[in-house]
Design a protein that fits this description.
Belongs to the binding-protein-dependent transport system permease family. It comes from Thiolapillus brandeum. The protein has 14 helices and no strands. By secondary structure, the chain is an all-alpha fold. Helix 5 (89-124) packs antiparallel against helix 6. It has helices spanning 2-32, 37-40, 47-57, 63-76, 89-124, 129-143, 146-158, 176-210, 213-220, 225-234, 238-255, 258-264, 269-279, 282-310.
């Protein structure tokens, strides 16, 4: 009951955040986004034809009216029809979001689990060659652009000039083996880049925790390394780790796979968002921005609840 009350209270306080994000993004879309009028009217349009198209697109409405209509779409989860394809935006999201999740979840999970494991090893052997080797590899992962990694991995694993083991582009998935063929190279690219950032961050958190009095005492009493790392260090370092993981989720779900989907030709929500940006498809952009803002508020709520689960001293009041 306490958690339910807290979640409700937190969601209500998150409403100004949603309004702020959607207002700024809507302002940018309306005044600085592309105008699709002249794409739709054809050559040599009359003023009446231009006015008719602008009316159909809703461009002739006052800004406040258009923004309130947008908020209504967000509350009812009905974002209308895509300007480019005429398909319902909800149908597009229902088709593409599962593909993006299937694409990004393996890399996201592996990147974090391996990052925590490598950070524990590096922190436990702090200053020794294991630590230097892992941190050196992390710097390499952080230094190389994600775009370069994607292209390099495509050449190495997918092209005829490389190993040619996996498809270069596309998403023809009908069974589990198809899924592995299409998801392996994007996952390897994601893990390669994520490991650098995750390992360095998690190592810094764990090293700080290793300097606590209770850890030194446990070590002095001869606590085995496994128990020391997982029970006395990792458990108490979970709050910053949870924070990093949770705040990555909205971007990963909605827009984090944009580069992957663009370069691998995978029809997920990232590719749809990219196409909407280049064509000025406002209904899709409004849906993606609004849902991302709502997801951030939901993540804020879940984040604090997870804090409470891993550390009973945290209060939800």
């Amino acid at each position: 009951m306490e958690m339910l009350q807290y979640a409700l209270r937190k969601f209500i306080t998150g409403i100004p955040l949603i309004i702020g994000v959607t207002l700024i993004s809507f302002l940018l879309m309306v005044y600085f986004g592309p105008d699709k009028t002249y794409e739709l009217v054809g050559k040599n349009p009359t003023p009446e034809q231009i006015q008719e198209v602008r009316h159909q697109l809703g461009y002739d409405q006052p800004f406040v009216t258009r923004y309130l209509e947008y908020l209504k779409e967000l509350v009812t989860f009905d974002f209308g029809y895509s300007d480019s394809t005429g398909e319902r935006v909800n149908s597009i999201l229902a088709r593409t979001v599962p593909i993006s999740l299937a694409l990004i979840i393996p890399g996201f999970v592996l990147g974090n689990l391996l990052g925590i494991a490598l950070a524990l090893i590096a922190a436990y052997h702090r200053g020794r060659w294991w630590d230097k080797f892992i941190m050196g590899g992390s710097v390499v992962g952080m230094s190389v652009s994600f775009l370069i990694v994607i292209i390099a991995f495509q050449v190495i694993f997918s092209s005829n000039d490389g190993l040619g083991w996996f498809p270069v582009r596309g998403w023809n998935v009908y069974d589990f083996w198809d899924y592995l063929r299409y998801v392996t190279v994007p996952t390897l690219a994601t893990v390669f880049v994520a490991l650098g950032y995750n390992t360095r961050f998690y190592r810094a958190v764990i090293v700080e925790e290793m300097g606590r009095d209770h850890v030194r005492t446990a070590k002095a009493f001869g606590t085995p390394p496994g128990e020391l790392l997982f029970k006395h260090i990792l458990k108490n370092a979970m709050i910053p780790i949870i924070t990093r993981i949770m705040f990555s989720i909205p971007l990963v779900v909605i827009s984090g796979s944009l580069l992957l989907e663009s370069y691998f030709g995978i029809p997920g929500v990232g590719l749809v968002t990219y196409d909407a940006i280049t064509t000025g498809d406002q209904p899709i952009l409004k849906a993606v921005v609004g849902i991302t803002a709502v997801l951030f508020v939901v993540v804020l709520i879940l984040n604090d609840i997870f804090y409470k689960l891993v550390d009973p001293r945290v209060s939800l009041k």
